[in-house]
Structure prediction request, 140 residues.
Amino acid sequence: MKKEPCPYCDKDESLDAFGYYAFNLSVSTVYIFKEQSHYGRLIVAYKDHVSEMCELSKEERIAYFDDIARVAKAMHKAFHPDKINYGAYGDTGHHLHFHLVPKYKDGYEWGGVFLMNPKLKMVEDKEILKTIVDELKKYL
Prediction:
């Protein structure tokens, strides 16, 4: 049986299309989303290839949500959003991951659901993305 392609596992051009590796946490990997209509938007992907929360043990689930909460706390300190939206999808990419999307009252899409990839502020420059990562890491 052929393995399903997965950008989080394969770390190939399919990942390069939307994200930039930032760093590892206890049970997850953080990626900065290249589409930065919401400054600081990122993805927290579980370290192993699982599709559903129910595939994790209670301890793994707690550790994963601790990683997500740790990143969200750092996002609040680094970027000062008015709210962080959390999205867990996977209809087409079956690897457990959460989008953490900082929302700003005077910013794009305040008061509505965030668009997956509006392509309004695509950041391809890795130095700019690294700056976002460095800001965030100050608070981890």
Notes: The chain has a mean pLDDT of 92. The first strand starts at residue 19 and ends at 24. Helices lie at 7-10, 13-16, 58-79, 126-137. The two ends are 40 Å apart (CA to CA).
